[in-house]
Amino acid sequence: MPQLSADTLLALDRAHVWHPYGPMPGTVTPYVVESASGVRLRLAEPVADGRRELVDGMSSWWAAIHGYRHPVLDAAVREQLGRMSHVMFGGLTHEPAVRLAARLVEITPEPLQHVFLADSGSVAVEVAMKMCLQYWQSTGRPEKRRLLTWRGGYHGDTFHPMSVCDPDGGMHHLWGGVLPGQLFAPQPPAGFDAPLDPEYASLFEGLMERHADELAAVIVEPVVQGAGGMQFHSPAYLRMLRELCDRYGVLLVFDEIATGFGRSGALFAADHAGVSPDVMCLGKALTGGYLTLAAALCTGEIADGVSRGEMPVLAHGPTFMGNPLACAAANASLDLLLGQDWAVEVKRIEAGLSEGLAAASDVPGVRDVRVRGAIGVVQLDHPVDVPAATEAAAREGVWLRPFRDLVYTMPPYVTQDEDVARIAAAVTAAAVAG
Ligand SMILES: *Cc1c(COP(=O)(O)O)cnc(C)c1O
């Protein structure tokens, strides 16, 4: 039984607890979740016309791909809890972490051979950047330390990842003189099926050619730009990046923290293009949404380069690195994912969202409707009224969390057709209300 009444809990929450991108004290009352099971969140108090259960349209930000309280994941974490919940990773190792690392190497593109386990996505991006900068330092090119990305990206909230987030969306003007100055290309042309625009390619090549001497790496989110604006682009741009990076001696980092583990219709978005980056970041769905864990994978060449340096180690080591509980959850989540025809489930959700959102393009104020894999997006021509849109979705029995001009969903892969239809209806209702 909960120890606090919902009213007390909300009063303490408002007085003391920061929420993501929130003011202090809080101004909007969050829903109190009591428990969650399958694709449903159980609320402590009724909301919007007396509903106490909402279908989760967000997978807790891309993470809970198998839904909540999955018996296999629960059992894996319990079993691990019976052995140890944590031990330090310096000088010690354990099966959950080793199995996970070997598995990640096996399922990601071939050249990626080495795994650094981090405790959040932002830290994995930090580590990826450190790998690249240290590689160039070790190989006698310390001046190669800037990063190039395209606009519209999101790579996390710590400072170096922030420096490659979209400069407008990431509010770089607040951080003048604090963020390292990176290079930005325009956003890639929209559309998964759009052909490569040769003008864009030559513009990008021009940037690389001019800056090759100072560039350590290009970092992008492949195929789906997530929190930077939910835009999709063609895999052809990933092949373009691979070619240009090879031509100009620049490393390539794919941030697959949102796209990894099937979300975009391929196990990794890089697979749509058949290219491998030099470094890949994973997170979010890695543990099926159970615990915080992320990873940065790199090629043998990067690891060798780092080892040849004056400081022949990768200088990073989080306290909770390789946490056994998180690794056990990740191993079980991968067993579940790869033990089924996940691509069929993602396609099924893609079809359900496409059908269910088709009518949303006729809603006044809707600028664009797009679906890719198990991701559905309705973009408005104005900023969303978040409280009104959230309540409209809740009235349809669905949890959504719109932002900026976007009402969007990425449901758990276990969401059944009826609930996918309900989610699509809720996205549409939220777009009408927002
Ligand atoms: C969420 C996200 C991150 C940051 O991950 P955290 O675990 O929130 O630190 C980085 N890159 C991408 C593409 C993301 O979607």
Describe the protein.
Belongs to the class-III pyridoxal-phosphate-dependent aminotransferase family. BioA subfamily. Its EC number is 2.6.1.62. It comes from Kitasatospora aureofaciens (Streptomyces aureofaciens). One of its GO terms (biological process) is biotin biosynthetic process. It is an enzyme of class 2 (transferase). By secondary structure, this protein is of the alpha/beta class. It has 2 domains: about 30-60 and about 340-434, Aspartate Aminotransferase, domain 1 (Alpha-Beta Complex); about 75-340, Aspartate Aminotransferase, domain 2. About 35% of the residues lie in helices and about 20% in strands. It is built from 14 helices and 16 strands. The chain has a 7-stranded mixed β-sheet with strand order 4-12-11-10-7-5-6, sandwiched between helices. The protein has a 4-stranded mixed β-sheet with strand order 1-2-3-15. Helix 13 runs antiparallel to helix 14 (about 415-434). The longest helix is centred in the N-terminal third of the chain and has 18 residues, at about 120-140. The two termini are about 35 Å apart. The model has no long low-confidence stretch (mean pLDDT about 95). It binds pyridoxal-5'-phosphate. Pyridoxal-5'-phosphate binds near residues 120, 122, 283 and 284.
